[in-house]
Structure to design on (723 residues):
């Protein structure tokens, strides 16, 4: 199995090397290398998953070791892989979505001057994400954690000639840096208290640590997750990250990288089990973010940004799940979300492709007639996210709500309200984009077209996955829950069989209610250009300006930092540092001017000096 | 037998005359001659001490000094001629181009 795992990792890396060095010469052939590499990884991941399904594992009962990376008296870091039920699921999700996004990119990125560069970065991302997922120690995880952040930065700023894109890349990188700082401190605290960074030793010895220490560690690790998984208050980079190519948004900013935080919390479930306070913070932040981001998505008109806020909101859901101890439910939602949100983003990309880059839903409408495959796959994804049975989103969302209901009714209520808003905004998007009368500009409408097969086939596959992926989790005792709980050990199974049907009915009603309200507002009453132009009320203004969070950050953090940097530049650098350097130069100049006066050019003067000097020297020597 | 002190005093006097010549005269040729005088004053003390101590080293040095002086005369006179051709003067007070 270790051989499989090594090749799963190496294939994308080989793709990076080939495309990185020879991509320009390959030209259009770059995608063959990239897709082939990820395809092999995908096939091997399925094999590994099947092995794990049969009870095989790697690095769980004994520390896995491939080779020793850092070896000192106190710190020993090995490179090794941990393949258990949790990483097997992640492996499958990551490689599956990656493969289809790669295929989709062939059509989407056609003709882009950075074609090979794009696939290089995308392969590098897959490699980094797999390093993160397969790591068996915190250092290796951190390497993957940072590397996916780097790839995210590179791909958000892929069209770097565009100022907004390169700004968005920087924003993502800097905001992530804040979270990663907490993560790193958490790692140092683990090392200081446990003396090792291997998952095996840390999780074995964690229960010996004092409560306060475990809580601090768990919270610091969660700070990293807040940054990486775009939770409040560090979510601000994700909506801006939509500047990148849409397949990137789908793969990195919906399906895989942003779920790394959820995966990390689930991976460290031992720590969060020992620190209920930290787990409560996780669930609380998740619930708040879920509600907060969903409310912004209600009024957003940019098709990709609606999905971005939706992603933030759904990630909040996952954190509710892992925060209340329902790790399997959280990871299950991660999986279904990867499929339906990846699908939604790819369909949005397909719309953009057809609309010559137009993102504003107010200039769309009625696209169903011209691009039926895109429209109907989008509807499938939307029904899945809205929580209508038997599609994927229903089962996973319901599992989280069910877990929250037992012991955390407030979180359950927030989740339910969020579910309503989710159904509403996603169907608002559908009705504004694909249904109703067309508000498309004349010249854009002229070449409106369905996307090529390389784009529609991944859509259809992901739509199929969005339909069936939930069926593995229909029962709390079996399917994916039984499978994942092998990794999470004895998680307290809540006896929810009695009220479960009732809860299901409530969440289905809420989802359908959201859809119905969206229908009433955006389809039954025709959404026209005039209505789009009408200004909204105070609440609408608050929501559509995103609670002014960006403005607040700008005033509270960006402005002072940039002013402080200006001060450092003007005073410390220009005045003091440059001043010292210039002063040295000036000193030398003045002294040399004074000394150079000696060179009169008059020979008698030189001769006299020489004689006088010789006499003086002789006097001192002979004396 | 003339005592060594006579030779050294004569040498010192000749050297002092040479130094004064270099310091006071304006004519480059005369300065040049004064330098030669200083060299030969030193030569005198070399041979005097060589005789006094009965050693050949001082005599050998005199040959070296004479050789160097001959070379110096050749080069120095060439410089003076070049200077005169360019500046029409051999007055050191007027030759002061090489300064800051």
């Amino acid at each position: 199995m270790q051989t499989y795992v090594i090749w799963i990792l190496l294939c994308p890396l080989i793709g990076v090397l080939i495309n990185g060095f020879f991509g320009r010469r390959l030209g259009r052939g770059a995608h063959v290398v990239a897709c082939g590499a990820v395809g092999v990884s995908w096939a091997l991941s399925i094999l590994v998953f099947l092995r794990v399904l049969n009870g095989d594992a790697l690095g769980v009962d004994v520390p896995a070791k491939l080779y020793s990376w850092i070896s000192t008296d106190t710190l020993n870091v090995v490179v090794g892989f941990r393949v258990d039920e949790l990483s097997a699921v992640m492996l499958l999700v990551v490689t599956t979505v990656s493969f289809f996004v790669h295929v989709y990119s062939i059509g989407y990125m056609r003709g882009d001057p950075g074609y090979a560069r794009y696939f290089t970065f995308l392969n590098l991302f897959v490699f980094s994400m797999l390093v993160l997922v397969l790591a068996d120690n915190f250092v290796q995880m951190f390497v993957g954690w940072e590397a996916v952040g780097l790839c995210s930065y590179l791909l958000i700023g892929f069209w770097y000639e565009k100022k907004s894109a390169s700004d968005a890349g920087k924003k993502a990188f800097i905001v992530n840096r804040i979270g990663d700082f907490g993560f790193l401190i958490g790692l140092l605290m683990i090392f200081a208290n446990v003396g090792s960074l291997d998952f095996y030793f840390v999780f074995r010895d964690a229960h010996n640590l004092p409560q306060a220490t475990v809580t601090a560690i768990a919270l610091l690790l969660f700070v990293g997750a807040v940054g990486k998984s775009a939770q409040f208050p560090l979510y601000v980079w994700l909506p801006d990250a939509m500047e990148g190519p849409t397949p990137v948004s789908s793969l990195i900013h919906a399906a895989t990288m942003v779920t790394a935080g959820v995966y990390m919390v689930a991976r460290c479930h031992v720590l969060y089990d020992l620190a209920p306070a930290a787990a409560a913070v996780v669930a609380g932040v998740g619930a708040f973010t879920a509600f907060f981001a969903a409310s912004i998505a209600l009024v957003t008109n940019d098709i990709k940004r609606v999905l971005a806020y939706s992603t933030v909101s759904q990630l909040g859901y996952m954190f509710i799940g892992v925060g209340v101890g329902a790790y399997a439910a959280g990871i299950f939602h991660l999986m279904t979300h990867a499929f339906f949100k990846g699908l939604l983003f790819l369909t949005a990309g397909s719309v953009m492709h057809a609309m010559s880059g137009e993102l504003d839903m107010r200039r769309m409408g009625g696209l169903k007639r011209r691009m039926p495959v895109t429209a109907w796959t989008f509807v499938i994804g939307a029904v899945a996210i809205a929580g209508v049975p038997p599609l994927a989103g229903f089962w996973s969302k319901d599992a989280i709500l069910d877990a929250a209901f037992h012991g955390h009714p407030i979180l359950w209520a927030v989740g339910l309200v969020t579910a309503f808003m989710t159904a509403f905004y996603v169907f608002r998007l559908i009705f504004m984009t694909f249904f109703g009368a067309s508000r498309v500009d004349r010249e854009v409408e002229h070449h409106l077209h369905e996307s090529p097969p390389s784009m529609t086939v991944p859509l259809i596959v992901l739509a199929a996955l969005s339909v069936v992926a939930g069926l593995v989790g229909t029962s709390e005792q079996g399917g994916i829950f039984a499978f994942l709980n092998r990794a999470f050990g004895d998680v307290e199974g809540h006896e929810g069989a009695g009220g479960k049907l009732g809860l299901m009915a409530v969440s289905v009603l809420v989802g359908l209610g959201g859809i119905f309200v969206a229908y009433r507002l955006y389809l039954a009453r025709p959404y026209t250009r005039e209505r789009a132009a009408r200004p909204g009320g105070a609440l609408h203004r608050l929501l559509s300006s995103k609670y002014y969070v960006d403005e607040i950050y700008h005033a509270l953090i960006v402005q002072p930092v940039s002013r402080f940097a200006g001060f450092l530049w003007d005073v410390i650098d220009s005045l003091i540092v440059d001043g010292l350097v210039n002063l040295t130069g000036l000193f030398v100049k003045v002294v040399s001017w004074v000394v150079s006066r000696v060179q009169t050019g008059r020979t008698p003067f030189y001769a006299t000096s020489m004689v006088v000097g010789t006499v003086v020297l002789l006097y001192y020597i002979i004396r | 037998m003339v005592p060594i002190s006579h030779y050294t005093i004569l040498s010192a006097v000749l050297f002092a005359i040479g130094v004064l010549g270099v310091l006071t005269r304006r004519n480059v040729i005369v300065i040049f001659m004064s330098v030669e005088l200083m060299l030969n004053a030193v030569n005198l003390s070399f041979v005097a001490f060589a005789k006094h101590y009965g050693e050949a080293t001082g005599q050998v040095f005199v040959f070296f000094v004479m050789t160097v002086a001959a070379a110096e005369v050749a080069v120095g006179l060439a410089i003076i001629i070049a200077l005169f051709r360019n500046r029409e003067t051999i007055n050191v007070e007027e030759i002061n181009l090489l300064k800051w």
